[in-house]
Amino acid sequence: MTVVGPIGLSVRDLTLEADIQAGLAAVEEGLIEATKSDVPFITGAAQHLLRAGGKRFRPLLVMLAAQFGDPHAPGVVPSAVVVELTHLATLYHDDVMDEADVRRGVPSANARWGNSVAVLTGDFLFARASHILADLGPEAVRIQAEAFERLVTGQILETAGPREGRDPVEHYLDVLSGKTGSLVAVSGRFGAMMSGADEAVVNILTQYGERLGIAFQLADDVLDIASDSHESGKTPGTDLREGVPTLPVLRLRAQAEASGSPEDRELCRLLDGDLTDEGRHAEVLRRLRAHPALEQARRDTLRYAADARAMLAPLPEGAAKSALEGLCDAVVHRAG
After folding, report:
1. What's the confidence (pLDDT) of residue 240?
2. Can you give the pTM of this predicted structure?
C-alpha cells in the first residue's frame, strides 16, 4: 500500500500507482512550463503559489478517471494542467477578495506584490489555461467555459449572500457546488473523456467529482476550526478572522435561531465582533470546537463523501474504482 499525493490517497495496485505517479510528475512539468514567461517578474509571480506546493487534488482525479479508458492518451495530462492552472488562478483572485496574507504557508501574492499584480497574475494563469485548452478541442473549451461560469456564479452568490427568506445553509451549499464542485467535476469529466472512456462512465465520474468537491470544501471548513495545523497552510480560524462564512458557523447560527439558547446567542455575538482581537478569536475557536455545530458539519461532510462513493457503484470493479472510493475516505479523514 502506497500513499500518493499530499491528500493521503492509499493505492494498493503497483501498476496504478506507477501510472498515477508518472501522470502527476508530467502534470508538474506541464505546470512549470505553462507558468513561464519571457518576463522574469511574471514567471516569479505565476510560479509563486505553484512552488509553494498544494494537494494537486484535481490532477489526481484526472489521472484516476483516465484509468477507465487509455490513461496514456495525449489529452489526459494537458487537461489536468488546465484544471490545476484554473484552480491556481482562482486562489490569486480569492486572496485579493479575502485580503488574505498567507496562502500555502507563504505570503500571498497580494501581500507580497499588491492587489493589482495578484489579480493580473491570476488572469495570466487563466490565459495560459485557455491556450492549452484550445488544443484539446471545442468540446473541451465548452465544458471548461461552462464550469468557469458556474465557478464565478458561485463566487458572486457568496459575495451577495442569500436572498430574503432563503435558508443560509442551502445557499452556502449552492455556492460550494459552483465555487468548488464545478471544477472538481470537470476534473473527473476530462480524465474520463480524454482517455476515451464510455459516455456513461464520463457522466458517472462528472457527478462523482461534483459531490466529492463539495465534501472536500466542507472538510476544509471543519479543519479551519478543528485543526491545530491547517493543511492548506493557513492558521486555524483564518476563515473566522476574515469573516468568511463556513458551514460550522452557519449551523451554529441556525441552531441559535431555532433554540434561542443564551450560550449560542452569546457565541454568535462574539462571532459578529472584532475577531482580529487574539483573545476574542481564541475564545470563539475554543467554544466552536466544543459546539455540536462542528459535529453536524462533519456529518454533512460524510454525507457528501458517501454520495460521491455511491455514484461509483455502476463502474467495473478494479484498482481504479477502489482508489476513487479511497479518495472519498481520504477527504473524510481530513475532517477528523
Report:
1. 81
2. 0.91
